[in-house]
Amino acid sequence: MNASRILPLVGAGLLASVVTGSAANLEIGRGRLQVFNLAFDNPGEPVDPDDADGDGVDDYDDNCPAVPNPGQEDTDDDENGDACDGFVDPDPFDPDPGIDPDPGVEPGGEGDPIGSGCGIVTTGTKSGYWMVTSQGHVVAFGDAEHLGDVSPSGAEIVDIEATPSGHGYWVVDSTGRVSAFGDAPFLGHADTSRFASDESVTSLSATPEGDGYWIFTTRGRVVPIGNAGHYGDMSAVALNGPVRDSIPTPSGDGYYMVASDGGVFTFGDARFHGSMGDKPLNGPVESLVPDPDCEGYWLVASDGGVFSFEATFHGSMGDTPLNRPVTGMVPFGEGYLMVAGDGGIFNFSNLPFLGSRGSNPPADRVVSVTALDL
User: What is the domain partition of the chain in residue ranges?
Assistant: First the structure.
């Protein structure tokens, strides 16, 4: 897959017949969704969470994942589908895309105190990370301990989330079934009785205390479990792309969601700082990551492009060819760390690079990463 290709997005952010004009606020439940540049009359069709452009080819294998091209035509054999050739990246949030740290290189000094906030307070004494594959195999690096794998159940694993202590993790599959390891308490599976036929679970986020968690679906539904509160969701609104990721606020009184088109949705005390919902992208957005002071966030797309909103840009892989698309990103030290489907790790932080599986990929696709940062 060519990571430098540019793909246009069809539409902008959110499709809702009740919203028109250049700027609007839509009140949903207890959360506020900020919507920009919308002028649609009809809701969109449901989107396959693994096939953002609906052309029948999974994003993981699609040579043009944001533009429908079922034939995968590639006349010039550049691994960039014909449907995507010829676009120019405006790169509005990349201040200097030609100066990116190499993967695994720490831009900061050694031994410096690391910032606090957003549930990622750290002294720098321990660091590590876990990645999980679609079949539940967990791989640990650095000080992260391997505490168990998920027994195959037939459903694809979609997310892994570390406990606040760093001594455990939860793993969730596409049906909302949760597996708990180490000191992670098992608090229940998602109730899927209200799910639509094409709706599946996409992520899990834990409360700051670790005694509750939210399960998020492709349609933006939020299922709170344990002491997690419900602050609103997107299940009643048709989205232009499926929800891909979620993060809680430091207080646990709110959360963010991000959709594949880069739309950002905020609820409770989460603050909206902008989105990519009306911008052309190289590929679908995969993750939303808070910055250390909780005043902003980063988005990452499948080509490794990073977009900063009230957060310091530390670099990206957006102009570097990747063997496999990026599938997730997490906060790490003062920056962020991303993982690709082959287990490749790309570290843009002041913490050390602790290894990857890029040169020896797991048998199954890596779908998520979570960090130990104590």
Answer: 127-373
| CA distance between the termini of the chain | 35
Beta bridge partners of 223: 215
Instruction: Report which DSSP code applies to 101.
Output: P
Amino acid at 54: G
Angle at 367 between CA 49 and CA 181, to 5 degrees: 120
Of residues 161, 173, 172, the one with CA closest to residue 129: 161
Other Cβ atoms closer than 10 A to 147: 16
CATH topology of domain 127-373: Methylamine Dehydrogenase; Chain H (2.130.10)
Helix (H) or strand (E) holding 289: strand 285-290
How do residues 308-330 score in pLDDT, each as one tens digit? 999 999 999 999 999 999 999 99
| Model confidence, pTM | 0.71
CB-facing half-sphere around the CA of 292: CA atoms within 13 A? 18
Residue 330 and residue 369: Cα distance in Å, rounded?
7
Could you give the CA distance from residue 235 to residue 233 in angstroms, rounded to a whole number? 6
